[in-house]
Design brief:
heterodimer, A: Methyltransferase, Methionine Synthase (B12-binding Domains), Chain A, domain 1, Rossmann fold, 2 domains, 9 helices, B: alpha/beta, 3-stranded mixed sheet
Chain lengths: 210, 436
């Protein structure tokens, strides 16, 4: 029996899954159904990453395959894809630090677990975090940083949120290269997560998802 | 000669420091004692006490009351910062000022691989950062493999240094007879003129900077502090994934053209060996600094490490060892699952400095095989007290120092912290790390 779409994508079979995408579209299948299968496949990818079967190369490559599929499907979309989101999370790499690999993995994992992720990118000044937290009223903020210089930037970001009177409306988690529980205390954040799975567990706990 | 004999020659040169006029007999003695300590640790022997290395990073800038941007642009400030750092902390080696790069030179040549304070980063940024991009395109592996020098000159150089952009216009640099004319044509092409102007301007800047670097290195040596890092290299996978293709590009290649990726990494080995040997022949220290990035436990699977990271890197290491050099790896992240692989090298031939690897496990696996160190984290130094730092260093010494083959050092360089925390490391090595 040929592998189905979800398996092909989850197993990172580029040629086959792209071919199957085209076949399904040509057969007149609903574009949203393909996107829905893609989402299921990405959940499998996320699970395998959490189980230590997949690593960064698999995540990056699956992301690339998803982009290709989305591009193919787009012209056939008659209405926007909608999915129920569990809650909002703002994430970003703090000021002065331009590392994004870990940040994007956390974004990916939160997204496949059903959260609405606002990824502000890298070198994000404290004020930009403040504005985004005001605008979205997200209950969770994730600060990423790879270098020691991020220690101070994290602290400054938390202090800017305090000064704006927003701090007690949110939970703040930190993660990345040189972060640990000591930096969490230093920066006055609520938690440190050592990897993307811990970020997901923290957000689930804080937003109240079982 | 065996690799050990070639290495003995290099150790001898490092120890005897030819041409160095020490400021005092004590400085000469101190120099010898420090270098001996490191050499003993490398050879898995017991030194008089645990050797201790404090890498500077950008800490010297803040310690001397400047910031990082200032010492990148003001070479006199750089001089004061590094000399003060070297003399105030009794590190067994000092990685000299060459690690503070000249900001103005990069401005003039429009370097694109880095962002630095005032150029892509806020003025207050305390370190340089690396800009990952696909400087090499997916379909360019053959160009790299067939003629690496031509590829670096006409593809990578113009894409990574704005001032060298006209180099992309040159025809292929492969004809023996044609090269002089190719140079003449470039010299008369108006598009090349700004490049030559920039080279001249940058050269003036380089001379000013290098003069200070040499003077600082000299002063530090004369005061009795051995230099470290006779050369610098990258694992072939990191050369591709950090610099040429970027993480994203390298990952695509792992799936779409793994054979090309493997062939290119193989091609890079002899080039890297030659480059490092030339650097090391000119310097006193036989250690080769190798920062390691994308082979860690979190980044790739064991299968991927076995296929894409370790074989070409091991070959590079064996080549360096065979030259009598001492590869000195600084391993970012965690290497708990890699320890059994990296054990597979000649006994006592390399140094592994770990950032977050489980040091008890590292000692268990590598003890008696390779010198280890590291793991004093940036977090501890930035947020901890001297007492906490001492406590952790005592644990590290208890765990890793028995039977030798151990260096007490940081897992990564630091930008800013309480200076007493760095003193606490050195003090612990001196007071607690004595071999009986």
């Amino acid at each position: 029996m040929p592998k189905d779409f979800v398996d092909l994508l989850a197993d990172l079979q580029e040629e086959e899954v792209i071919k199957l995408t085209k076949q399904r579209l040509e057969a007149g299948e609903e574009a949203l159904a393909i996107l829905d299968d893609s989402r299921k496949a990405m959940e499998v990818v996320g699970d395998r990453f959490a189980e230590g079967k997949y690593f960064i190369p698999e995540l990056v490559y699956s992301g690339e395959l998803l982009t290709q599929i989305t591009e193919l499907v787009k012209p056939y979309l008659t209405r926007p894809a909608e999915s129920k989101r569990l809650g909002k999370v703002v994430i970003g790499t703090v000021a002065g630090d331009i590392h994004d690999i870990g940040l994007n993995i956390v974004g990916f994992m939160l997204d496949v677990h059903g959260f609405e992720v606002y990824n502000l990118g890298v070198d994000v000044p404290p004020q930009k975090f403040v504005e985004k937290m005001k605008e979205t009223s997200a209950p969770v903020l994730g600060l990423s940083g790879f270098l020691t210089l991020a220690f101070d930037s994290m602290k400054e970001t938390v202090e800017a949120l305090e000064a704006a009177g927003l701090r007690d409306k949110m939970k703040i988690m930190i993660g990345g290269g040189q972060m640990d529980d000591e930096v969490k205390k230093f920066a006055k954040a609520d938690a440190y997560g050592k990897d993307a799975m811990e970020a997901v567990s923290l957000v689930k706990k804080w937003i109240g998802v079982k | 000669m065996t690799w050990q004999e070639r290495r003995e020659e290099r150790f001898e040169k490092w120890l005897s420091a030819p041409g160095v006029n020490f400021v005092s007999p004590e400085a000469r003695e101190g120099y010898k004692a420090r270098a001996t300590r490191i050499i003993n640790a490398i050879k898995l022997e017991k030194p008089d006490r645990v050797p201790c290395q404090i890498p500077g990073g950008s800490f010297p800038a803040y310690y001397a009351g400047f910031d990082f941007k200032t010492i990148m642009y003001d070479y006199e400030a750089m001089r004061r910062a590094w000399v003060k750092f070297a003399l105030d902390f009794d590190s067994d080696t000092v990685g000299v000022a060459a690690f503070t790069v000249p900001g103005k030179l990069y401005d003039i040549l429009d370097y694109k691989l880095y962002k630095w304070p005032g150029n892509g980063l806020p003025d207050s940024a305390s370190m340089i950062q690396f800009v990952e991009k696909e400087y090499m395109k997916a379909d360019e592996y053959d160009a790299l493999i067939n003629n690496p020098a031509d590829f670096m000159l006409r593809y990578i150089l113009p894409r990574t240094w704005g001032a060298f952009a006209p180099m992309a216009k040159l025809p292929s640099i492969s004809s023996v007879i044609g090269i002089p004319f190719l140079m003449l044509n470039a010299a008369s092409d108006p598009e090349f003129r700004p490049m030559f102007d920039a080279i001249n301007k940058a050269n003036e800047e380089k001379d000013k900077w290098l003069k200070v670097v040499i003077e600082v290195s000299q002063a530090v040596l004369e005061a009795g502090y051995p230099s470290e890092g006779g050369g610098i290299a990258l694992a072939p996978f990191d050369t591709i994934a950090d610099i040429l293709r970027g993480t994203y590009g390298a990952v695509m290649d792992m799936y779409r053209q793994p054979d090309k990726l493997l062939e290119a990494m193989e091609r890079l080995i002899p080039l890297s060996l030659q480059e490092v040997k030339e650097q090391a022949d000119m310097s006193l220290s036989p250690t080769v600094f190798i920062p390691m990035h994308k082979g860690d436990d979190v980044f790739m699977s064991d299968e991927q490490f076995e296929k894409f990271y370790w074989p070409s890197f091991r070959k590079l290491l064996l080549g360096l060892i065979d030259e009598g050099l001492v590869p000195y790896m600084v391993v970012d992240g965690t290497y708990n699952r890699r320890l059994e692989y990296i054990k597979d090298l000649p006994r006592g031939s390399v140094v592994w400095v770990f950032e977050k690897t489980d040091m008890a496990k590292a000692k268990k696996v590598l003890g008696g095989y390779a010198c280890i160190g590291g793991n004093v984290t940036g977090s501890l130094l930035r947020t901890g007290t001297p007492e906490k730092v001492k406590e952790y260093c005592r644990w590290l010494i208890d765990t890793c120092a028995p039977d030798g083959g151990y260096i007490l050092t940081l897992g990564a360089s630091i930008d800013n912290c309480n200076p007493d925390n760095l003193h606490a490391i050195v003090d612990t090595a001196k007071q607690y790390g004595v071999y009986k």
